[in-house]
Amino acid sequence: MYMRITSRAAAVCVMKPMPSSSSARALIATPGHTDGCTSYRWEDRLFTGDTILIDACGRTDFQQGSPERLYQSIQKLLAFADETLIYPAHDYNGKRVSSVGQEKTINPYIAGLDEAAFVAKMRALNLPKPKRIDVAVPANSLCGGADVPRQPGETEAA
Asked: Can you list the domains of the chain with their CATH numbers?
């Protein structure tokens, strides 16, 4: 297995072997929010990045986003047992963990939506452009290699 290591000084991404252990783990390609989104399974846990958030999912209106691909990626993750724990990359409401079963039941971007309905919902969101997107997208392309200071009081959600 491999994981991405970022060298901030050179702004270069390299692939390094992940340490071996006896625990079950897997890397799962989950594009849709961006081309490079990856989720990770470790034992009974999924680390879903921005693919599945708690009661939400990643947006698809920039950075190579695709609602069709996001839907397919979400379905891959929902195929795990309902008891599988979900840890998203972040949550703006202070929640830390969910489960596959909970997201299937109450996530308004998942529950009861087929692919056509999901795609229509995502395309109709009309979300405001994030304040730092013009900095974040190039930095993401450099694997986070761009150090851009925040303004006083500015947070990830700002």
From this structure: 14-130 (3.60.15.10)
